[in-house]
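Posting for a labmate who doesn't have an account.
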Amino acid sequence: MLSSVNFSDVTVIADLEAGIGTLTRLANEQVDVVLLVVEPTVKSLEVGARAAELAREKSLGRLIVIANRVRNQADLDAISSRLPGIEIVPVPHDPAIVEADRHGVAPLDSAPDAPAVRAVSKVAEDLLAAVKRS
């Protein structure tokens, strides 16, 4: 029964569709952490910048940019310059991810020590630790 649930003790993780549509429908201050996944491409960074601006306007909570498929420092610099002042977690381009996708398996299962898997796992561990502290 929902009336007996203390929602302050509930953790919900949602993987939302790409773009800003879902963010436009969220009420202000309704989210604790927003993980914004971008890639070092012009289109991705354009949408990412709009999403970051919207998340800030709505005070949606801590904003973390997951810089996906980073190949080099130039990629990371492009992301940092387009999304200044935001915590950025680089996730390297990793052939193990491509291979796992090719075989329809989770990278965590097929290559748990791959650099990209370790980067994403670290984000999850850090967020879990923050939830436990609060």
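Reply:
Got it, the structure tokens are right above this. The two ends are 25 Å apart (CA to CA).
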